[in-house]
Amino acid sequence: xxxxxxxxxSLAIHGTQIxxxxxxxxxxxxxxxxxxxxxxxxxxxxxxVMQLLPYGAECSGKITLAGEDILSRSEAQxxxxxGRDVGMVFQExxxxxxxxxxxxxxxxxxxxxxxxxxxxAAMERAADALRRAELPQDRFPLSRYPHELSGGxxxxxxxxxxxxxxxxxxxxxxxxxxxxVTTQAQILKLLQKLVVEENIGLMLISHDLAxxxxxxxxxxxxxxxxxxxxxxxxxxxxxxxxxxxRALLKASGHVPERTGHARDTALLQVxxxxxxxxxxxxxxxxxxxxxxxVNDVSFEIRRGESLGLVGESGCGKSxxxxxxxxxxxxxxxxxxxxxxxxxxxxxxxxxxxxxxQVVFQDPYGSFNPRWKVDRLVTExxxxxxxxxxGREKDRAIAEALESVGLNETDRHKYIHEFSGGxxxxxxxxxxxxxxxxxxxxDEAVSALDVSVRAQVLxxxxxxxxxxxxxxxxxxxxxxxxxxxxxxxLVMKAGQIVEHGPTDDVFDHPKHDYTKQxxxxxxxxxxxxxxxxxxxxxxxxxx
Length: 542
Description:
The longest helix is centred in the middle third of the chain and has 18 residues, at 181-198. Strand 9 and strand 10 (226-232) form a beta hairpin. Among the domains are: 255-355 and 437-542, Rossmann fold (3-Layer(aba) Sandwich), CATH 3.40.50; 364-436, no CATH class. The chain is α/β, with parallel strands linked by helices.
């Protein structure tokens, strides 16, 4: 008997059809990968298992968990199942955790809700769950708060909460999207270890085929609320029949075409830059120390070039970015843009600042939801000495939106009316509105589906060729960096440990850290697509 069986599940919300006859099965000790774009129905299918559905949702079909008919259970019975029989790991650990409570308290909360035990006993079981999630108490005491942990460590706390009561089924919804490649590999390995050691079933939801390639025993590919293809992972990867499945596979290794070439003149020069922060330890014997986030970093970006910057979280990428943008001064070295210093008299040089723009990772979080698109894209106008008005402003808005594939009429909409890919296009339009020379893309495509990511990369390549743009592309996704950049810098602990042409660095890494990054990158299986294999970094057929 299957651990989880979903048969012909259909779901409508206020009469709108969301799921159409979805069927899938998960066996104990096996991993089911659920693949599809945003809006394909992956997450709502998982929420249907726990009946955590929005008001107005109506389900038909059958959901059976360990022999229990889920759809016939009362809310009280469902509350007993959630957390005890089914654990959930969410995409963003910081929003899944309470910043005001210690990690021990949060893991113990699940135990106290379902078990009649003392608080001391619950804390002991919480410590055991954290140990199984590879957060031993000698290094990560129960008294730690979420902000004291890294992104990967916070995700382990969320996993500990999910497995505290040793559930039969674990649902992981995009658990590694925001993590760098080495941390992602560690989290995926931990999930696989838990499945094997505790004989639980795992539903791993992802938009990226490569992420689940080495992990899943079985695959389900969803599109617009329907299962378009399913089967054993190895067989499905090698014999994809549905056009949508093939399109996802092709998009995973997409490389945009570029016709422009970098020139010899340097646009940005970073020379021996040092950025330090003062840290304090409080208490009777409190001390003050210096933390060097960027340590003697030097490089340059040529006009028309696309330069990649990769490294794990905490390596100093974002600190360096803020210094380049003139948001933070440096304690040593200098940053020159087209020969002019970014900082003059301890203030950002306004003449330089208006020639640089940035595109952030989360387009929704970087916009004011109360503003319409026309006001959002013209935010950078505050950098100009003379701001366009009237018809000139209208023409600039229309030109920016149309340059990224949107319509001029979209200016009258709010940001929540757009999809994730469209929001990122609006973010790019905002960066283009004042016609900058350099655009810094900070994890600009990491949260996008593979097909949408391919479209945005094509857009960036086209804009670079048409508008003679220069890019600094910051990402933890090595396949993306390889597809869009000519040169790459590898950063670790505030220093550039390796640099060179992108293909050379990824094909023949010299530094041990670079080798670790390359080895940790998710890879599609060998012998896919008619007997050929995918390169683990580029995703291209070789």
